[in-house]
Amino acid sequence: MTNIKSNKLVTLVIPTTGKDYERRKWDFSIYFDRLPVKRIVFIGPDELEEKLAKDIKEQGEDRVLFVEENTLLPYDNVKEQIIRRVKKAGYGMDENSKPGWYYQQFLKMQYSRICDDDYYLTWDADTIPVRKISMFDADENPYMDVKHEYCEGYFRTIKNLFGMDKVIKESFISEHMLFNVDLMTEMLNEIEQLNLDGDLFYGKIFNAIGLEDLKRGFAEFETFGTWVWNRHNGIYKIRNWKSLRRGNIFTKMDDLTDEDVKWLGESYDAISFESYHPLIPDLAEMFRNTEYRRKMTAEEFYLTVLKSGIFGEFKDNMVISDGKYWPI
Question: What is the pLDDT of residue 322?
Answer without folding.
Answer: 65
